Amino acid sequence: MIEPSIDAHKAAGLCGHGNEPSTCGTCQTTELTQAEALVHQEMKEGLPVISAEDYVRFYNTDIRAAGADTAVTFNFQGFVKEEREGYIQGTFYKDTMATNGILKAEGHEGIHVSTDGVIDYSASGNYQMKSLEDVGEYDIYIKVPGKLQVEKMCVVRYESCTPESEFDGDSEELERTRSEDGYIVMRLKLEPREDKLARQKAELIHNQIVRFVERGGALHEIQGRTRSLEHRLENISEEDFPTQKKLLESE
After folding, report:
1. The pTM is what?
2. What top-level branch of life does the organism fall under (predicted)?
C-alpha cells in the first residue's frame, strides 16, 4: 500500500483479531491483566482509570463466549470513574480478581469466583475506597448456580457449602434452596495494611480455587482447602514467597 493506513482495530480499542481484548479467545491470554485488557487508558497515581461500565463488563466477562478452553481472570488494581445516574459519583479505587463461567454448561452460567479488596466486610456500599491504603481485607465470593448444585450433589446456603447428604431440611426446602444461585463467602485473614504480600497471597488463593473447581473438586471442600492454604501462607517471608508459591502451584 502506498499511503499509510490506520489500524481500525487499535483505533477502536480492539485486538488484532477485531475482538475486545477481554473476550478474544484467539489471543491465547491466560489473564485479563491491566496492560492487556485495558487499552488507551487514563492513569492516576500510576494505575489505570476505567469507566464503571467497563469495570462491570470486565468483572462479568466469560471468556468461554469467545471460544477459550480455560477460565480467564480479570485482575485489576486501579480506579473506576462512576458517572452513571443513580450511583455515588466520583473516581474510586478498586482491587479485584474475577473469574466467570467455570464449569459452565447448558442451562446455567457456571461458577463465578471473585476476590475483592475492601475496607471491611461490614462496610456498606457507600464506603468507597480512595486509594490502595484503604484496602483492609480480602473477601472471596463464589456464586454457584442452583442447577450446578444439583449436578455436584451439594447445597449452598448461609454463605457455605455442604454435601447434599448432610442437608438437614426436607425435599421442598432443598428444591427451594436450589431454585436460585447460592454464595460461598469467605473473609480472608490476610492483613493488607501490615503484610506487603497480602495481595499476592490473595491472588494465589483465588487462582488455586479456580484451578480446584476446574479440575472437578468437590465444592464443599473449598472452604477447608482455602483456610489450610491461607494458614500455610501466613508467615512466609518476602524472600521465600516466590519459591513457596511455585511449590504450592505445582501441588
Report:
1. 0.82
2. Bacteria
